[in-house]
């Protein structure tokens, strides 16, 4: 509620959530006079008898086509007006140019627009705090990127060394010797290194790779384990997927820990 300035119910339906007796459609002026459950039951019976609680009848009146008699009344009676959006007749005491349904729809759109503006303000505030906490980095700086556990194989390093190749709207494009990482990173996602471990000249700018692929290139056991072999002949020939790749070694997930010569 703090970030969008209102409850999710208000942002969805354009009004506050009804609780208690208001949730069953009782008039506000009658609720204060109710004392017991019998009073509530008696009021509901009266509403059903008078037709105030019959929603089906109200819907039929709204969707019923306009007759010629109503059109003639529109021409003779200046008090009858049409809604500017749905063109249904308005009540005489309705001073607005739109009907109740259109007003409700407009209110919902306004609440959602205000919620969107509050989210944008919250995002700007978070970016301001982040910029004050983390100093901006320049192109050519070697940074350290944390590798998620799902992208990391057994025995793989926890971090990946890369170099900043481009800065776009406070977002950093990173590159490695094996290619350019596809995704952009914020300042809080990377940590600068004091020494220059990766040079801009050594970056392969002709190829784009994912962080998982970059982590696999820097690992001695390959990627996180989707590539594995099921060899039963100790991985001696090129029929072994790991040996065929040339740079991959069999890991503990290959061939059910059977004897292997590709380790």
Q: If you average the pLDDT, what whole number results?
A: 77
Which word captures the global form? elongated
Q: If you compute it from the alpha carbons, what radius of gyration comes out, rounded to the nearest whole angstrom?
A: 34 Å
Order of helices and strands: HHHHHHEEEEEEHH
Q: Can you tag this structure with a few keywords?
A:
alpha+beta; 263 residues; elongated
Question: Would you give an account of this structure?
Answer:
- The radius of gyration is 34 Å and the shape is elongated.
- The chain is an alpha+beta fold and 263 residues long.
- Helices cover 33% and strands 13% of the residues.
- It contains 8 helices and 6 strands; from the N terminus they run ααααααββββββαα.
- The longest helix is centred in the middle third of the chain and has 34 residues.
Provide a brief overview of the structure:
The protein is α+β, with helices and mostly antiparallel strands and 263 residues long. It is built from eight helices and six strands.
Q: How are the elements arranged and paired?
A:
Elements: H1 8-13, H2 28-31, H3 37-50, H4 55-63, H5 68-76, H6 100-133, E1 142-146, E2 159-168, E3 171-176, E4 179-185, E5 190-192, E6 208-209, H7 211-217, H8 241-245
Parallel strand pairs: 4-6
Antiparallel strand pairs: 1-2, 1-5, 2-3, 3-4
């Amino acid at each position: 509620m703090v970030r969008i300035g209102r409850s999710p119910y208000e942002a969805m339906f354009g009004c506050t959530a009804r609780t208690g007796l208001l949730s069953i459609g009782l008039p506000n002026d009658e609720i204060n006079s109710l004392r017991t459950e019998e009073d509530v039951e008696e009021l509901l019976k009266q509403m059903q008898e008078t037709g105030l609680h019959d929603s089906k009848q109200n819907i039929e009146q709204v969707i019923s086509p306009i007759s010629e008699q109503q059109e003639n009344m529109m021409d003779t009676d200046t008090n009858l007006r049409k809604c500017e959006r749905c063109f249904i007749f308005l009540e005489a005491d309705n001073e607005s140019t739109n009907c109740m349904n259109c007003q409700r729809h407009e209110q919902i759109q306004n609440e959602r627009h205000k919620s969107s503006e509050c989210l944008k303000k919250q995002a700007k505030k978070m970016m301001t705090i982040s910029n004050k906490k983390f100093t901006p980095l320049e192109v050519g700086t070697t940074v350290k990127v944390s590798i998620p556990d799902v992208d990391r194989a057994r025995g793989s390093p926890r971090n990946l060394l890369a170099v900043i190749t481009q800065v776009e709207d406070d977002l950093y494009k990173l590159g490695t010797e094996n290619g350019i990482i596809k995704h952009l990173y914020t300042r809080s996602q990377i940590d600068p290194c004091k020494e220059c471990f990766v040079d801009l000249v050594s970056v392969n700018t002709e190829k784009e790779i994912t962080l998982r692929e970059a982590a696999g290139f820097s690992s001695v056991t390959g990627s996180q384990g989707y590539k594995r072999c099921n060899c039963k002949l100790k991985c001696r020939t090129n029929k072994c997927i790991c040996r065929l790749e040339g740079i991959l070694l069999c890991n503990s997930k290959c061939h059910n820990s059977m004897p292997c010569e590709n380790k």
